[in-house]
Amino acid sequence: MIISSASYSMTSYPSATSQASSRQAGSAQAGGKLSPEEQAQVDKLKARDQQVRQHEQAHLAASGGLATSGASYTYQKGPDGVNYAIGGEVNINTSPGRTPEETIRRAETIRAAALAPADPSGQDRAVAASAEKMAQEARSELAQQSTATPGKGEDSPTADTQKSELERLYNGAAPRSGNLLNAFA
């Protein structure tokens, strides 16, 4: 996965690749038929190709417009001379939003995109964890903003109603019907 200040790449790579395919490609092309071993290798490469493409497509589908490009793939040539995708990546813009609220929405989208494949890789899980951290920091900033602004919301009708109801209670006046619960909720 490529990490930069503005994007993460969600990458899928195989645990091991066969280097025998490049040596065997010549023998399959020369004779036109594949040996049972070569055919088995082609079958494995086809399965891996499908798995990688589905994995990266899941990232793209869940990226919510944060993908900076389509999927890019790493290929391996099979004994049949065909290139098969054995790894891939999707670049996702991970920059914070202009406001804490926007940052939270972006972080949730990034996390969803990272965990979208049926089998998220370790790198995908790391991106999801980073997105969760970004969301937590934005929530913390939002909480600080609301506590740093004393009296915020006092001008709203609900706050006025609750304030006047509390004043009546403290002054010994009977509460208005139906508003007592709202004053304490």
Provide the structure class. Answer: alpha+beta
Q: What number of structural domains do the residues give?
A: 2
Strand content: 5-15%
Shape: rod-shaped
Strands in their spatial order, largest beta sheet: 1-3-2
End-to-end Cα distance: 48 Å
Give the topology string: H per helix, E per strand.
Answer: EHHEEHHHH
Q: Give Rg in angstroms.
A: 28 Å
Largest sheet at a glance? 3 strands, antiparallel
User: What helical percentage do the residues reach?
Assistant: 40-55%
Mean pLDDT: 77
Low-confidence stretches: 1-6, 14-30, 173-185
Put simply, the count of helices is 6
Task: Tell how many strands the DSSP assignment holds.
Answer: 3
Produce the secondary structure layout.
Elements: E1 7-12, H1 20-31, H2 36-62, E2 72-77, E3 83-93, H3 100-114, H4 122-148, H5 157-170, H6 180-184
Antiparallel strand pairs: 1-3, 2-3
Helix pairs in contact: 2-3, 3-4
